[in-house]
Amino acid sequence: MALIEFKNVEKYFGDFHALKNINLEIEEGQVVVLLGPSGSGKSTLIRTINALEKINSGELIVDGRHVDNASNQDLAELRKHVGMVFQHFNLYPHKTVLENVTLAPTKVLKISKAEAEKTAEEYLQYVNMWDKKDSYPGMLSGGQKQRVAIARGLAMHPKLLLFDEPTSALDPETIGDVLEVMQNLAKQGMNMLVVTHEMGFARNVADRIIFMADGEILQDTTDVAGFFDN
Ligand code: ADP
Ligand code: ADP
């Protein structure tokens, strides 16, 4: 069974046709990179997967759950298993790094504070941010914030992590650290769907490239080297 399945999916914003007849199956164990010009629908496509955007027609099945016509309870369940890393981090500014990472596990998964802090330590070590656990997001660089956001996503033990232009808002000198964390996750077999303009990352890390333009998938290939050589 595919981890993500789009069947004839259409998405409109008013009259604007943002996703046009999307058909897509993503298996477990694939790192998929979505490329395409600005405004082509990449962000909209990944936001439909955890229902941050609702599709207008077609079928969307994620980890065996129908996202189209899902109840609010189903969506809450789905979002436990689908993590998302945003361009602008979406950290809580008035909570420390550690609190940002423990919040969802304690509130949503009802894990004890002690247990959540143990998990948070593991993932903050992984992204090399444990020494900043008591800092507030405003004190961190963009790259540091993004690594905290990744740790927060991982702390939910997601089956799938979505990345929406995770490095586009960062200073150039902090991008490398974030891409390195993402590359390590990929090596460890995390299921990832990544919207990015980082061609080096796409070329070196992707198992599959999906190229969009004007709301359509124009290319979908596992021949990543071939994609970049042509
Ligand atoms: P990309 O990620 O490829 O840059 P997006 O998915 O963000 O593209 O956007 C695709 C198109 O849909 C753009 O023209 C954008 O302005 C439009 N769009 C995105 N979200 C909305 C929205 N909430 N309301 C209206 N138009 C939107
Ligand atoms: P982020 O990187 O945090 O997702 P964006 O600027 O891409 O920020 O989008 C912020 C919000 O604005 C999203 O919810 C998106 O759907 C919405 N949006 C994007 N383009 C448009 C548009 N043309 N009209 C209305 N809303 C839009």
Annotation, overall tally of beta strands: 10
What's the average pLDDT? 96
Strand content: 25-35%
Give the termini separation. Answer: 32 Å
How do the strands line up in the largest sheet? 6-7-8-3-9-10
Structural class: alpha/beta
Which term fits the overall shape?
Answer: globular
- Helix and strand sequence: EEEHEEHEHHHEHEHEEH
Describe the largest sheet: 6 strands, mixed
Q: Report low-confidence residues grouped into runs of 5 or more.
A: none
Tell me the Rg in angstroms: 17 Å
Number of helices: 8
Q: Bin the helical content.
A: 25-40%
Bound molecules: adenosine-5'-diphosphate
Explain the overall architecture.
Helix content is 37%, strand content 26%. The protein has 230 residues and is α/β, with parallel strands linked by helices. Strands 6-7-8-3-9-10 form a six-stranded mixed beta sheet, with helices on both faces. Strands 2-1-4-5 form a four-stranded antiparallel beta sheet, covered by helices on one side. Strand 4 and strand 5 form a beta hairpin. The longest helix has 16 residues, at 172-187. It is globular. The structure holds adenosine-5'-diphosphate (ADP) (2 copies). Residues 43, 86-88, 164 line the site of one adenosine-5'-diphosphate.
